[in-house]
Amino acid sequence: MNATEDLPPKSGAASGLQARYYPVFLDVAGRRCVVIGGGEVAERKVEMLLACGAEVTVVSPQMTPRLAFLSQQGSIHHEKREFFLSCLEGAFLVIGATDDENVNHAVWREGQSRHLLVNVVDAPELCNFIAPAVFQQGDLLISISTSGKSPALAKRIRQDLESRYGSEYAEFLKILGDMRERVFSAVPQVEQRKEVFERLVVSEILDLLRQGNSAEARRRAEEIVRQAVESARGKG
C-alpha cells in the first residue's frame, strides 16, 4: 500500500490553490484608527470606521464639510496638519487617502515600521490589507474582493447581491440570533443544536418574511425551538 493513501486530503496551498489575501473581518470597536487625508475618499473610510465603533483620528490640513461636522460633534479627532510620524502612535490601523504620492509612501513606511495594518487607497503595493466592496443587510455582511484587480467588477457583483438579498435577511438574522441564545441555554448536545439551527435555516421562515408575515415567521421559529427543547429534555 502506498504510504500516502492514509494521509488526509491536502488543502490550501498544498492542494495547488493560491490566494493573494487572507480573508478576515476585523473588530475595530474602541481601537484607534488613523485616516490620513480629508477628502471625499477619506470621508467614506471614516464613515465606515465610525459605523464599526472605531476611535478615529483624521490627519489633514483641510477636511470635507461632513468631516468637519463630525469633528465639531466630537465623533472624530482632527489633527489639522500634514502627516507626521508620531500621529501613528498607539494606532491599530492606518489608511492613507491623499493624492500626494510622497505622503502615501511615508504612511506606508511608518506603518510598516510600527507593525500596523496599513491601507493606502488605490495603491495595492502600499497595503498589507485591502478593503473589499461591501454589501450589508442588518447583521448580514458580504464582502467582495477581486484581489485588487478590478474594483469595478467587485462593485458590479455587490449590486447583483443587493437585488438578491433583501431586507428580509436582516429580519431573519434577528430571529436567528434570538433563537440561538435560547437553543444554547436549553439544548446541551452539540449535534442537537446543529440540527435545530439547520431546521431554522431551511424552514419556511424566510419565505414568510418575504411575504411580510413577520408574526407568523417568528411563531414558526418559536415552534421549531420549542420542539427541539422538548426533545432535548426527553419529552419529544
Automatic annotation (TrEMBL):
Entry keywords, A to Z: NAD, Oxidoreductase, Porphyrin biosynthesis
EC category: oxidoreductase
Domain called Siroheme synthase central: residue spans: 137-163
Gene3D superfamilies for this protein: NAD(P)-binding Rossmann-like Domain, SirC, precorrin-2 dehydrogenase, C-terminal helical domain-like
Catalytic activity: precorrin-2 + NAD(+) = sirohydrochlorin + NADH + 2 H(+)
GO molecular function, one term: precorrin-2 dehydrogenase activity
Domain Sirohaem synthase dimerisation: 169-223
EC number(s) from the headed UniProt entry: 1.3.1.76
GO biological process: siroheme biosynthetic process
Pathway involvement of the protein, from the record: Porphyrin-containing compound metabolism; siroheme biosynthesis; sirohydrochlorin from precorrin-2: step 1/1
Alphabetized InterPro entries for the sequence: Met8-like, NAD(P)-bd_dom_sf, SirC_C, Sirohaem_synthase_central, Sirohaem_synthase_dimer_dom, Sirohaem_synthase_N
A Pfam short name: CysG_dimeriser
Protein name according to UniProt: precorrin-2 dehydrogenase
Species the sequence originates in: Tectimicrobiota bacterium
